[in-house]
Write a structure and sequence with these properties.
Strand order of the largest sheet: 1-2
Radius of gyration: 18 Å
Structural class: mainly alpha
Distance between the termini: 63 Å
CATH superfamily: Winged helix-like DNA-binding domain superfamily/Winged helix DNA-binding domain
Shape: globular
Number of helices: 6
Helix content: 55-70%
CATH topology: Arc Repressor Mutant, subunit A
């Protein structure tokens, strides 16, 4: 005889399943079209959304790790890989020589601009597939409701900065 699963645990399992399905779908699409992992896309996206202006507005590596929900070592490996490909650059903080900032290069911005439609299409496809599963449909509805909310937008930074 099977034990009933508590509602909260069942909900968490459904949420985890939805996340895993979406991430796998996006991963396949980004790899196939742009040789970019979903994590690499996330790094580029987070860094591209940094406020413009003073260097204090840039993420330090530990802040980037927090924003990505990754360990500092995993973040450093990702940044190293993207820097080796010419998609990111690092520079020292002028006020604290121990601080290192990371920014998206022009090449990284061009790749990000090409990859965004692929990411968005893969996300839409993954949500449409998940919506057909009764246990995931309410979560998809919640994601779509979040997407429908007005959010402040920021113009992408020009590719000739830094």
């Amino acid at each position: 005889m099977t034990r009933p699963v508590p509602d909260l645990a069942q909900s968490w399992c459904a949420l985890s399943t939805l996340h895993d399905r979406i991430e796998a779908h996006i991963e396949r699409a980004l790899q196939a079209e742009h040789a970019l992992s979903a994590r690499e896309f996330s790094v580029l996206t987070v860094l591209d959304q940094q406020p413009e202006g003073e260097e204090n507005d840039h993420f330090r590596m530990n802040e980037l790790a927090d924003a990505l929900s990754l360990s500092q070592s995993a973040t450093t490996r990702l940044v190293n890989r993207l820097e080796d490909r010419g998609l990111l650059s690092r520079f020292l903080c002028h006020t604290d020589r121990r601080g290192i900032y990371t920014d998206v290069t022009d090449e990284g911005r061009r790749l990000l601009a090409k990859a965004r439609p692929t990411n968005d299409a893969a996300l839409s496809e993954a949500l449409a597939e998940a919506e057909r599963r009764p246990v995931l449909a309410p979560l998809v509805e919640a994601v779509r409701a979040l997407d429908a909310r007005p959010t402040p937008t920021r113009e992408p930074r020009p590719a000739d900065e830094h």
